[in-house]
Amino acid sequence: MFDTILIANRGEIACRVMETAQAMGVRCVAVYSDADAGAKHVQMADLAVHIGGPAPADSYLRGDVIIEAALDTGAQAIHPGYGFLSENPDFVDLVEAAGLTFIGPSGDAIRKMGLKDAAKKLMEEAGVPVVPGYHGENQDDEHLSGAADTIGYPVLIKAVAGGGGKGMRLVEKPADFAAALASARSEAKTAFGNDDVLVEKYITKPRHIEVQVFGDGTHAVHLFERDCSLQRRHQKVIEEAPAPGMTAETRAAMGQAGVRAAEAIGYSGAGTVEFIVDGSDGLRPDRFWFMEMNTRLQVEHPVTEAITGVDLVEWQLRVASGEPLPCTQDQLTITGHSFEARLYAEDVPKGFLPATGTLTHLVFPAGCRADSGVRAGDTISPWYDPMISKVTVHGPTRAVALARLDRALEQTQVGGTVTNLAFLGALARHAEFSAGDVDTGLIARDLDSLVEPPAPEPRHMVAAGMRALDVLDGDWDSGFTLWEPLVHTVSLAWQGDPCDLLMRAEGPDRQVWTVDGQEVVAERIGGRWRVGGTVMPDVAMAQGVVTVFDGYGLAFDVIDPLERAAGAVGDGNLIEAPMPGLVKAVFAEVGQAVSEGDRLAVLEAMKMEHSLLAARDGVVAEVLAGAGSQVEAGAALVRLEPEEA
Ligand code: ADP
Ligand code: ADP
Ligand code: MG
Fold it and tell me: In this model, does residue 101 exceed pLDDT 70?
């Protein structure tokens, strides 16, 4: 076994790898950017090396600097985590040339799976079923549209170098093909520097089921499947294992296909073979097709760990250090069911806009595994993925595991930023999902009900008011009882809407509040506050914001009456960047008339593209940023002519 390894990553995955490595007695070296100097993964590490600026290109993607850090600190191996350099075959070759071990597959194996077209060809040869389609060399527009006609609509255009759902377009009918091809190509060109595409049959109402494989360079085993059908815009939201409705026959067929794929490329380490599955008539052994192989440890690996009892990172370290596969296929079994939800700092009602902020409060309940790269007090910076944590649960049956997920989400407390907790909670309670009736379109079909914005009740406002006035530990003999006439006001704002609350204290254990003309009684019984007849939820206050931990976290601004008068009203004339990012496109031209909701610009930030819309009807007065410019949060991009009085 290695004595020291370097983890070429950050956030939750760096922490997760260290947890296992350190438990195995392996020393861990962390690397960090300027933005991560105080990060959890740095604190956990035995040694940490600063590698550059906050932009990934200046730090976590600098293979040369990372290899040097490994050599300087006496590390014998590098664990790449996921993302960043994990699927970069040139990096693997450099690591090996430096005399170090890459904890993962060979550069050649990664190369073979790196492009979707070449991978599909290779898999076809290995006898793995692939999605019917055209993945040849001819990239002429006409040839591709002819291929689409042969395949039959609907078809999916995919960038061969694609990942993260980029460069992918669904085309419903021949008339739309040319435009979709052009936009897939341009997106692929910017994202991957390669605009080659393939065309494949679009499976309607499909499921995404993937097989976890593990190889030693020659032989491979599979650790069963994960169902990742719950997706938003082709990105996974909640994953589970095993797949609902899986039969022994189909599981064996998919597992064998996964093993064949891994063995065909001499795969070493943990990998995932992704299949698209037509589940319209049950899960059948002739209705799944290879999509791609991810040659790394996957984000959702904990659900596999939960049902198999295997620590995949331990296996990675053991196999990379030269040990044989820790067990044979028939020693692997499934116990119970597991779910993982990806908890993000994002504003769901505002179109899942990634958020930043300081986590003033962060508590996970017992009964779940929370893999997180942040602690209370840490900042979600605009530089990286806004993931706060993965919440994983396990139970003897799918129903019990789902109930545990529901409860874990309900009891997770995050203060200081908006989160997608309510969205995840709504999914955990979704009738079709509960019934195991999943497909990749479920979220899109029910989006409106899943993203309903929270509506606080008067009792929530009172709970917030009690914390803001600091009367929770109210002691009748102290301070505030001397104030006359025992009536206090507090001003809170819910999403910008101010509201005044009135409180009349009737003793240390009883207060009568008035909210919007409605009376709500707060009473302390047996040391526990009840508000409006129900137990008062937990509350936390920091930086002028009170968060009430009910309904997945309701945040109220506490308004200082002195500041209210000065409070600036947002300038409806300006379209501003909500976060730092790269301006991808500007659609506004000076003099152009625009209507409320028109898309004026596209900003790329935190791995995603965000449309910036006109807040009102008007005429464009000025365009202040062009495509390709890097802008700060709050930068003005477009200015409208002032509204006539
Ligand atoms: P999965 O199929 O497991 O969701 P993805 O390819 O979407 O895998 O990405 C895996 C993870 O890698 C993401 O959740 C993200 O944290 C990280 N990641 C991917 N691309 C980048 C990137 N360009 N920069 C930083 N992190 C990235
Ligand atoms: P990426 O590299 O972006 O992860 P994938 O090829 O893995 O791209 O596809 C991402 C997602 O797109 C899948 O999980 C699935 O939801 C959807 N998808 C991909 N191929 C098809 C297809 N042929 N038919 C229907 N949906 C598909
Ligand atoms: Mg994929």
Answer: yes
Question: What pLDDT band is residue 567 in, cutting at 50, 70 and 90?
Answer: very low
- Ligand 2 site-directed mutation target among 168, 199, 294, most atoms within 8 Å of CB: 168
Name the closest ligand to CA 57.
Answer: 1
Instruction: For residue 174, name the pLDDT band (cuts at 50, 70, 90).
Output: very high
Atom 6, ligand 1: residue with shortest CA distance:
164
Separation of alpha carbons 522 and 464, rounded Å: 12
Residue ranges and CATH numbers for the domains of the chain are 4-103 (3.40.50.20), 132-201 (3.30.1490.20), 206-450 (3.30.470.20), 458-563 (3.30.700.40), 574-640 (2.40.50.100)
Place 507 in a pLDDT band, splitting at 50, 70 and 90.
confident
Q: How confident is the model at residue 630 (pLDDT cuts 50, 70, 90)?
A: confident
CB count, 10 Å around CB of 548? 26
At 89, list the tokens: 């075959």
State whether the beta carbon of 386 lies less than 6 angstroms from ligand 2. no
Q: In angstroms, how far is CA 372 from the centroid of its own chain? A: 12
Percent with pLDDT over 90 in the chain? 78
Of the pLDDT bands very low, low, confident and very high (cuts 50, 70, 90), residue 477 is very low
Task: Determine whether the shortest distance from the Cβ of 54 to ligand 1 is under 6 A.
Answer: no
Which residue's entry shows tokens 């590698």?
51
Q: Measure 420 CA to ligand 1 centroid, in angstroms.
A: 18
SS3 for 398-419 is: HHHHHHHHHHHHHHCEEECCCC
- Are 451 and 578 a contacting pair, CB within 8 Å? no
3-state DSSP helix/strand/coil percent for the chain, to nearest 5? Answer: 30, 35, 40
Q: 367-416 pLDDT, tens per residue? A: 999 999 999 999 998 899 999 999 999 999 999 999 999 999 999 999 99
Locate the ligand 1 atom nearest the alpha carbon of residue 11 and give its number.
16
- Single out the residue of 461, 534, 538, 470 nearest to residue 502, CA to CA: 461
Nearest-ligand number for the alpha carbon of 86? 1
User: How many whole angstroms from 82 Cα to the centroid of ligand 1?
Assistant: 6
| 139, amino acid identity | Q
**pLDDT of 424 above 90:** yes
Q: Averaged over 470-489, what is the pLDDT?
A: 62
Half-sphere exposure of 571 (CA within 13 A, CB side): 13
Distance (Å) from CA 291 to ligand 2 centroid: 7
CA distance 638 to 612: 10
- How far, in Å, are 177, 178, 290, 460 from residue 192 at the CA level? 21, 21, 22, 47
Rounded Cα distance, 636 and 624, in Å: 7
Query: Under 8 Å CB-to-CB from 331, ≥6 apart: which residues?
Result: none
Q: How far apart are CA 523 and CA 509, in angstroms?
A: 5
In one letter, which amino acid is 52? Answer: G
Helical packing angle, 248-264 and 116-125, nearest 10°: 110
Note the pLDDT of residue 569: 38
pLDDT tens digits along 237-269 = 999 999 999 999 999 999 999 999 999 999 999
Q: Which ligand 2 atom is at minimum distance from the Cα of 291?
A: 6
Distance (Å, whole) CA 27 – CA 45: 8
pLDDT attached to residue 475: 57
Please list the active-site residues: 296
Q: How far is the CA of 455 from the centre of ligand 1 (A)?
A: 33
Average pLDDT over the chain reads: 92
